[in-house]
Amino acid sequence: MTTVSARLGALARRHPWAVFCGRRAVRLTVSLFVVVTASFAMIRLVPGDPVRAALGVDAPPDLVAAKRHELGLDRGLPDQYRQYLRHLTHGDLGVSLVTGEPVADLIRARLPATLLLAVLAFVCVLAVALPGGLLAAVWTRGGRRPRVELAFTATTSVMAGVPDFVLAAGLTAQLAVALRLFPVAGDLGPRSYVLPVLALAFAPTAVLLRIVRVETLKVLASDHVRAARAKRLPAVPLHLRHVVPNTLTASLTLAGNLLPALIAGTVLVEKVFAWPGIGSAMAQSVAAQDHAVVEASVLVLGSAVLVVNFLVDLALALLDPRSVIRKA
Amino acid sequence: MVPSSLRPAAPRAAGRSGASRSGWASPLGATTLVMLGTLAVPAVAGAVLWRTAADRPDPSAVLRGPTAEHLLGTDRLGRDLLARLLAATWPSLLPAVAATLLGAAAGITLGALTAVVGGRARRLLGALINLLLAFPALLVAMFFAALFGAGADGAVCALAVACAPGFARITQTLAATVAGTDFMAAARVLGLRRHRLLLRHVLPHIAEPLVLNTTVAAGSALVALSGLSFLGLGAQPPSYDWGLLLSQGLDRIYTEPLPAVAPGIAIAFAAVAFQLLGEVLAGAAARRARPRQPEEPTAHPARAGRPAAADHVLEVEDLRVVLPATDRVVRPVRGVTLALRRGEMVGLVGESGSGKSLTALAIADLLPDGARATWGTHRFLGADAGSSSRGERRRRLATGMAMIFQNPASAFNPSLRIGTQMTEAVRAHHGTPRAQAVEQALAALQRVALPGGRRLLRSRPFQLSGGQRQRVAIAAASMMRPALIVADEPTTALDVTVQRQIMDLLRRIRRDDATAILFISHDIALVADACDRVLVMYGGTIVENLPARELAAGARHPYTRMLVASVPDLAADRDRPLRTIEGGPPDPCATAPGCPFHDRCPHRLDRCAVESPVLSPLGPEHEVACWGPLPPAPFRGQRVTEAAATEAAETGMTETDVTETDVVEKEEAEK
C-alpha cells in the first residue's frame, strides 16, 4: 500500500497533468456508471407495474405481457442489465411505452434545443455577472458607499430567491400574453429565446454577482494591488490589468458549478414555455407515466452534467495550472 | 436558482449565536421579519379560515376571471382560487420544512461520521459525498420522486435524499476543522465512544453554521417541492399546494394570467423570505457594529510652520493617522514631522507598531481603506497637498515618488509578466512607447546587476527569488527617475547577504540620480550604516531626529540610547543575555496625555506623564522630543555603555538594573 502510494506520489511530481487527467477520468467513469445503473434501476423499481400504468388500466393482459416481454422485463435482473448495457453501447435507449417510438430519436431531436438554451443562459450569466460584480466590488470596497452595498446585497438576495419556473410564468403572463412582446411558447426564431433564457439566467446571475464581488474584494485588498496603486495607474488599466485576471479564475470555478444546475433547471422552464427540449419531454412523460422516456431523460441529463463538470475542470486546469493541479 | 441553492450554501464564517440586535434592526432584518410574519398567518390560520371555501365547488361559476366575489377567479370546478391559495400555505411550507429536516439529519450524520471514523472509512465517505454532489439536486429529486411514486410523501423523501449530500459536505468540512483540535485529541485519548464523540464534541461546535444552512436550504426545498408539484411529481389532486396551483393556472395563462401569477408570487415570496432570513443570520456577525468614523477635523489648520525650503523634496508637519476599529479608534500615527532634502537618505527607525509604515503610506497617499490622515503641512516637491487638486496631486506623486514594499513575494502581480509590471508606470505617465520602455527597463535591470535581460522581462514573478524580485522592484522604482523613493522595510524579508546588496543598490541610485530616499526599518544598525540622517519613531511620534554619524554617541533621547545599546556587536559578551528595553510598546488606542515612552523611561520626570513633549531643536540638525534629554555622551559612547553593563553585571546587579542612568552618571564622574 505504501509503496503504491509512494510510487503514485513520484508519478504525480513528474507528470502532474497525466495524474490530474487520470483522476478526473476515473471519477467521470464511476459517476457515469452510477447514472447508467440508476437509470436502469428506475423502471424496475417504480411502484406498481410501469407497463400497465403506461398502457392504461383497461389494456388487455396479453398486450401488457407482450410489452413486458418486448422490454425484457420478464427476464432475470443480471440478464436485463447486460442487455441494457449492450443496447446502450449501440445508442439504443429503448422505445417509448406510450407511442412505441425509439427514445433515442426523441432525445436526438430534442437535446440540441436544451443545450442551446442552457449555454445561452450561461453566457448571459457570465456577461452580466463578471463586469457587474467587479464594478460592485470597486464601488463598495473597504466599506465605501454602504448604501450601494446594502442595495446590492438586498437586490441580489431577492433575485437569487426567485425560482426560475415562477419567473418564467410571470414573464409569460406579463411580456408574452399581456404585452405581446415575445412569443408565448415554442421555438419560433431568435425572439422566442429571450424569455426562457432570461428566466433561466436570472437567479444564477445574482448568485454569481455576489461571488465575483467577494472574489474581487479579496484581490483589491492584496499587496500587489497596493503596489500597482503606488504606480498611480489610471483606474481602467489598473483594474483591467491588475485585478481582473486574478479575480477571473476563482469566479469561473464557481461559475462552472452553476452550469450543471442550469441544465437541470431547463426541465421546469421548458415546461412553462413548451420548449421542444428534453426537459419538456421529460415533464410530459412524467405526466403520462412513460417511464422509458423519463429514464432516458435522466440518463442523458445526468451524463450531460457529468461531462460538463469534467470539461469545466479541464478548462480551469488549463487556465490556472498551478492551483488546480496542485490541489488535485 | 432552484437546483444549486437546494444545496446548502458554502460554509460561511461562523457568526455569533443568533443574529445580533443590529442585524434585526437593519432594514433587511425588519423586512425579513415582516415577510416571515406574513407567511405565518395564513400558514396557521389557513386551514381553519379558508378550507371550506377552498373545497366548495360551484358549477355555476367555472373558470371565472377575477371578480369582486372571487378576487383571483375560480378553477375548473368553480372553487375560489384565492381561498385555495391561502389554504395551500400550510401544505406548501410543511413538506418543505420536513424534507429539509430529514435531509439535514441524514446529511449531517453522514458528514459528521467523517470526523470520528478511521482514515479509510473517511476517504470512502468523502468519495461517496463527492459522487452524490456531482449531480444537480433538482435532477436527483426528480429521479427519486419518479421512483417513489408521484405524491406528496414521495416528493418529500426524494427531496430529503437530494439535499442530504450538500449537508454532508458542509458538515464534513466543518467537522474536519473540529477533528484537528486539541480537545478532540484529548477526547479520543480518553477513549470516548464514537457516538459520544459525535454528540458531545463534534456537533455542538458546528451547530451554528449548520442551523444557518438549514434555514437557507428550507427556502430552496420549498421551491424545489413546488417545482416537483408543478411537474406533476408532487402533490396529487384532490390535495394541492402552490406548485400544483401554478401548474393548473399555467394551462389557461393565454386567457387569464392571474391564476398562474398569484401562486408564482406566493412561491417567490416565501423563497425570498427564507433567503433573506439566511442573509440576516449570516450577516449578523459581519454587520456587527460598523466601525465608527472618528470625529476629528479633516485637516488641522495649517500652522505657521517653517516656510517651504527650496531644496526640500518632502515636508510633513503634524501628520496624524486614525484607523476606525469596531469599538474604538486607533491612532497609530500621532503628529509626525519630517522633511527630506534632495538626494538625502533618511532612515525611519522604530519597533513594530510604532507607526512607521502607516507614516510612509500616508505620505504616499496609499492608506488602507478606512484609515484617514490629517496634517498641518504636507508639501511634496514644493506643492501643498491641501491646495492642489486631486488630479494634480496624483500626477505629482506618479512621477515624483516611487514605493518599494517590504514583501517582494506579494508586491508583484503573480499573473503578469515582469516586463509589463516594470514598464507600465513609464508608459502610463511619460507616454513612453512600448519599445523604448522595454529598453529603459533593460537599462534599469543592468543597473541593479540583474542578468537575463529580455528573458527576465518575459518571466513571471514566481520564477524569481526574493532577492531578485526586490532588485526588480528597485529597478522599476528608479525607472521613473523619481525625486523620492519610499522604501518600506525593503530588506526585512531577505537574508543578510542580499540585504547588503539591496542597500548598496539604494545608495547607488541615491548618488546617481540625486533621489531622496526615505528608508524605513526596524534595524537601527542597518540604518546607522546606510543613511545620512535618522528619525527615531516611538508610539506614533518622532522622538529624535539626528545625523546618522551621531547615533552611536550623540543620541539624547532615552529611547534612542536604549535602542542603540540593544544592538549587539562582535565585541559583545556572548555569555550574557542581549540587552532589551523593558516593557511593551504603548497602546495605539490610548488617549492619555504625556510622553508615550514615560512608563518605560528610566529618567522620567513628573511632567512626562501629563504633558507630551514636542520635537524641538537641540543642536545643528538635531531635534529631540523629550523633557529631559540626556547629556551628550563622549565619543565611543556605545563602548562605554557596554563596559558599564559588564561592570554592573560583575558587581552583582541584574540586567534590568543596568539603566542609562548608571552609564550617564559614570560618564559624568569621568569628566
Topology:
The complex is a heterodimer of chains A (328) and B (671).
Chain A: H1 2-14, H2 16-45, H3 50-55, H4 61-71, H5 77-89, H6 103-140, H7 146-161, H8 164-178, H9 194-220, H10 223-230, H11 235-273, H12 278-288, H13 291-319, H14 321-327
Helix pairs in contact in A: 1-2, 2-13, 6-9, 6-11, 7-9, 8-9, 8-11, 9-11, 11-12, 11-13, 12-13, 13-14
Chain B: H1 2-6, H2 21-25, H3 27-55, H4 81-87, H5 89-116, H6 119-133, H7 137-148, H8 152-179, H9 182-189, H10 194-231, H11 242-250, H12 258-286, E1 312-324, E2 329-341, E3 345-349, H13 356-363, E4 372-374, E5 377-380, E6 383-384, H14 390-400, E7 401-404, H15 418-429, H16 434-447, H17 453-458, H18 466-479, E8 484-488, H19 496-513, E9 516-521, H20 524-530, E10 533-538, E11 541-547, H21 551-554, H22 558-565, E12 616-619, E13 622-624, H23 637-650, H24 660-670
Parallel strand pairs in B: 3-9, 3-10, 7-8, 8-9
Antiparallel strand pairs in B: 1-2, 1-4, 1-5, 5-6, 10-11, 11-13, 12-13
